[in-house]
């Protein structure tokens, strides 16, 4: 009996030590990884082939491939979708944003990482930055090389993303995009190269910060509205108004605007030439689309960097057009879709484009 008691005591001591051990674990920040697919979850039949299928590998396999991740944070994963990001949808955006809002409202979650294909990562990140209502860090990441590729960079990108999401310094910076040791603001970043690991850049404002094997620093804070300062909310929203993008070029056909209006677009973004320009015929069609159908036309640019300025070569008021400021066409579409969730004047929409 005495012997049994000693054994029992030893057992109890062991349980206590384990409990202390797990109490230390719970002192680590809690980071949730929400997986959506992409090349980071892609696999190929050959390690030296650039062709592969995106969105093949599940979240737990991805986490297991990152040595040391368990020392950064208590990490757990959830599969929200598993698609190549060319197949990202507004429905997935809404599901993802609602889930992030729900998770971040809990004291048990300190930060979020979203794994995502690189093709539309900047769009998802920008959308999230406008509708996630929290100061806690949200970091999107991905990779240019598939998980089975030689020198796959996905595991290090994921390691760094978890390090950022766990770091109190990353609070209040909005949604961030991190690949290749860099931290970018969702609003400012673009995919600039189709294949290179250094594809993500913020051509106008530059990086937000840097990260090196989990050690990180910030150089600036985004100066537009996002998160808690954003007036946009997706509470109760099940769909967004249709906004299309038209790419401008020399001698483009003037019937393009009508085609989009007939298809049901409530807004149109022109990826204009130069400083948001388009042919005279398109400009007049844009004016008519607003006057006859209330369709809002935003002038962005097909040029990779620079502002689109109001009243530059003509008076925007004469054509009821809005300028995108320095927001690229894909992100202008997102901002316009959210702006159109409620009735807003042209003046108010222009103000949104100057401030978000
Ligand atoms: N098209 C794929 C995607 O965006 C591949 C791009 C990538 O993730 O690098 O998911």
Automatic annotation (TrEMBL):
<dbReference type="InterPro" id="IPR027474">
    <property type="entry name" value="L-asparaginase_N"/>
</dbReference>
<feature type="domain" description="Asparaginase/glutaminase C-terminal">
    <location>
        <begin position="242"/>
        <end position="353"/>
    </location>
</feature>
<dbReference type="InterPro" id="IPR006034">
    <property type="entry name" value="Asparaginase/glutaminase-like"/>
</dbReference>
<dbReference type="Pfam" id="PF00710">
    <property type="entry name" value="Asparaginase"/>
</dbReference>
<feature type="active site">
    <location>
        <position position="39"/>
    </location>
</feature>
<feature type="signal peptide">
    <location>
        <begin position="1"/>
        <end position="23"/>
    </location>
</feature>
<dbReference type="InterPro" id="IPR020827">
    <property type="entry name" value="Asparaginase/glutaminase_AS1"/>
</dbReference>
<comment type="similarity">
    <text>Belongs to the asparaginase 1 family.</text>
</comment>
<dbReference type="InterPro" id="IPR036152">
    <property type="entry name" value="Asp/glu_Ase-like_sf"/>
</dbReference>
<dbReference type="InterPro" id="IPR040919">
    <property type="entry name" value="Asparaginase_C"/>
</dbReference>
<feature type="domain" description="L-asparaginase N-terminal">
    <location>
        <begin position="30"/>
        <end position="221"/>
    </location>
</feature>
<dbReference type="GO" id="GO:0004067">
    <property type="term" value="F:asparaginase activity"/>
</dbReference>
<dbReference type="Pfam" id="PF17763">
    <property type="entry name" value="Asparaginase_C"/>
</dbReference>
<dbReference type="InterPro" id="IPR004550">
    <property type="entry name" value="AsnASE_II"/>
</dbReference>
<keyword id="KW-0378">Hydrolase</keyword>
<keyword id="KW-0732">Signal</keyword>
<protein>
    <submittedName>
        <fullName>Type II asparaginase</fullName>
        <ecNumber>3.5.1.1</ecNumber>
    </submittedName>
</protein>
<dbReference type="InterPro" id="IPR037152">
    <property type="entry name" value="L-asparaginase_N_sf"/>
</dbReference>
<dbReference type="InterPro" id="IPR027473">
    <property type="entry name" value="L-asparaginase_C"/>
</dbReference>
